[in-house]
Amino acid sequence: MDQRCQGISAWCSIPRPTEPSRRPLKTRTTAIRRAIADSAADIKLLDEAVTFDRRVTEIQRALRGDETLRGLESGSPSTIQSRVNSAAAGARGLTGAPTGTQQMNYTVANDELNAEAAKLRSLEGELRRFEQQLEAAGVPYTPGRWPGQ
Questions:
Q1: What is the count of structural domains for the chain?
Q2: What is the pLDDT of residues 122-147, one digit of tens each?
Q3: Residue 149: inside a domain, yes or no?
Q4: Model-level pTM?
Q5: Domain of 131?
Q6: Would you say 63 and 18 are in contact if contact means Cβ atoms under 8 Å apart?
Q7: How many CB atoms are located within 10 Å of the residue 60 CB?
Q8: What is the torsional sign of CA 26, 31, 37, 43?
């Protein structure tokens, strides 16, 4: 089997590191927005929380696409998930090398996933620092944020 085909098989069979971590991050940013709105904290903190929430949404859309556009059937752009699915579905059951399109989809998806994973790691670190600011400002605790962290 071709090396790329093996890579696709291996990639599809393991849990994607960005998918499990993205969901709690979205939950955390939404909870942070609510907690800031319900507290007497400075409104600038709410603006920062909205920015974090938007960045998480952008990463989510890069990975899975825009649900609104997909619902309108308006021809949403290719996502990382759709490229991987396309490459993997076509490679299953092949005895020969994957096609050029499958190889291209795998390469593009891999590059895009690496870029989004880097954004996600950066965002996670920034969010931890922001949560420390929230604790100092007396904002109520939210999921994923513990006293003294």
A1: 1
A2: 999 999 899 999 999 988 888 777 66
A3: no
A4: 0.72
A5: 3-8+19-137
A6: yes
A7: 21
A8: negative
